[in-house]
Amino acid sequence: MNTQSSFASLGLAEPLLRAISDTGYSQPTPIQAQAIPTVMQGTDVLAAAQTGTGKTAGFTLPILHQLMQRPLAQRKPGRPRCLILTPTRELAAQVEESVRTYGKYTSMRTMVMFGGVNINPQISALRKPLDILVATPGRLLDHAQQKTVDLSGVEILVLDEADRMLDMGFIRDIRRVLALLPKQRQNLLFSATFSDEIRELSRGVLNQPVEVSVARRNTASELVSQSVVMTEQSHKRDLLSHIIRESGWHQVLVFTRTKHGANRLAEKLVKDGLSAAAIHGNKSQAARTRALSGFKDGKVAVLVATDIAARGLDIEQLPHVVNFELPNVPEDYVHRIGRTGRAGSEGAALSLVDSSEIKLLNAIEKLIRKPIERSTVAGWSPSMVKADPTPERREPQPGRRFGAGQGRGRQDAAPRARGARPSAQGRPAQPAARNAERREGERSGAARSGTPRPGSARPAAGRAETAARPDSARASGSGRRPAQGAAALLRKSA
After folding, report:
1. Tell me, what's the pLDDT at 375?
2. What is the pLDDT averaged over residues 274-303?
3. Which end of the chain is more exposed for a tag (fewer CB within 10 A), N or C?
4. Whole-number Å distance between alpha carbons of 369 and 220
5. Higher pLDDT residue, 57 or 421?
């Protein structure tokens, strides 16, 4: 089946089919096959799909089609017809790139806005006609308060990764945005899961929605090989360097629990002779963009990230993910390893686990409903650990969330934030970690300065969630199959 006939059968307009053909993909992904015709009918949609399934194109393509079929006689400056809300800056930029990719043969005008950069260029851009606006909630409300954006003409609203927006404490901002929108509009809500909180949100936003689901709740991709290496915390850095060097890994995303830990690990990996960079909420947007760009184009081999900074990142066929520390929340493990093994490509996820993380590991295995294979590393022994003159900083205790009696004076632990969100089931208010996530993801208090993201139609570096197997990715330049590099090093434990 060729690309043209496959997507043509969904009823998409010819300019969109040309753009899809340019991407070189053969057929729609399951979420696209289900969502595109449904969205084109103009009905509200509640969709459950993990990142990496092609979900972004699942809504950008039919949105572009609908707006093309209903052209306005005159477009007004700063008055978008479609509003797409995302939880993080990186995801906002990637979604807007997807819109540009598929809309390149149309006259649709798009714009992205998020915090952490100078607001004035965004104000200037809003003085021009606009069709599709991709935004994070905080910066959008800043513009609304200054009356630089007009939301009275929104015909279609998209809440992307709605579960993450709830987790990060955006519910109040979402409600404020909803109050600014016309009552008559089409609503699309995309989430990784149909949790009770998501269904509660959908009842307040959607009108008789059609449900689309292509992934079982909290499943880890079958294309991702998962393994665990038991080691002491003090040995992890040297072990990681050994694995990366001996396996010849050229692109690996490493997760730490804290921003300080991400900085420290990246610095130590550089001392070990590896090209590494850290990305987290305390970094300026310009620094985050540079680090991500370097990682995508191969100048940076190791990107060390916190959970929030990495949410929404879609790196083309990322071969390796390493959990330097297990997450305190089991569901975050699924999101972490979901950065690899996307849209049909293979991937490998390795977790370095010490004895204090056993309870976290057990919780993860219970969540994904299977044990994770224990492995050892060939050619490695603790005697290879280098003496490090840098005093070791005590990390948060595994299994405890930040702000829960961790003590004073910690830079990593976020202070307890006001207005923590209680859950629908009456559980305790969301802890400070979740409130810190919201700040780190978008309104982190970063300086309102920096360089806005360039608006190129197609950057030279890899693009996330833009192609049709949209959102999936082309092979990275190395040609290495993801799981092969470490296969010679990792051996199943007895």
Report:
1. 87
2. 87
3. C
4. 10
5. 57
What is the three-class DSSP state of 260? helix
Query: Crossing angle of helices 55-69/30-40, nearest 10°?
Result: 30
Domain 224-402+412-427: assigned CATH number = 3.40.50.300
Q: Which of 104-108, 180-184, 224-228, 383-387 has the lowest mean pLDDT?
A: 383-387
Same fold for the domain at 3-213 and the one at 224-402+412-427? yes
**Which of the residue ranges 43-52, 344-353, 464-473 would you say has the lowest mean pLDDT?**
464-473
The pLDDT score that the predictor gives to residue 404 is 36
When pLDDT is cut at 50, 70 and 90, the band that residue 59 belongs to is very high
The answer to whether residues 224 and 341 touch, using CB atoms and an 8 Å cutoff, is yes
Q: Name, in order, each residue with C-beta under 8 angstroms of 296's C-beta and a sequence gap of 6 or more.
A: 315, 316, 461, 462
What tokens appear for 400 in the block?
A: 């405890």
- pLDDT over 90 at 478, yes or no: no
Q: For residues 321 and 347, is the Cβ–Cβ distance under 8 A?
A: yes
HSE-CB of 47 using CA atoms within 13 angstroms: 31
Q: How wide is the angle at C-alpha 491 spanned by C-alphas 341 and 320, nearest 5°? A: 25
**From the CB of residue 179, how many other CB atoms can be counted at a distance below 10 Å?**
9
C-alpha span between 306 and 257 (Å, rounded): 6
Contacts of 124 (CB under 8 A, 6+ apart): none
Whole-angstrom distance, CA of residue 464 vs CA of residue 268: 28
| H-type alpha helices, 147-218 | 162-167, 171-178, 196-205
Write down the pLDDT at residue 413. Answer: 34
What pLDDT is recorded for position 481? 42
**Does residue 181 sit in helix, strand or coil?**
coil
**Is-contact 423 166, C-beta < 8 A?**
no
The fold of 3-213 is Rossmann fold (3.40.50)
How confident is the model over 428-440, as a mean pLDDT?
44
Rounded CA-CA distance 89/103 in Å is: 21
DSSP state of 442: T
What pLDDT does 255 receive? Answer: 94
Task: Return the number of other C-beta atoms located less than 10 Å from residue 290's C-beta.
Answer: 17
Task: Give 252's strand partners.
Answer: 302, 320
Please spell the DSSP secondary structure of 96-161, one letter per residue: HHHHHHHTTTS---EEEE-SSS-SHHHHHHTTSB-SEEEE-HHHHHHHHHHT----TT--EEEETT
Distance CA 208, CA 251 (A): 44
pLDDT at 126 over 60: yes
CA distance 82 to 185: 10
Return the domain boundaries, the chain: 3-213, 224-402+412-427
Residue 1 has pLDDT above 80, yes or no: no
d(CA 107, CA 112): 17
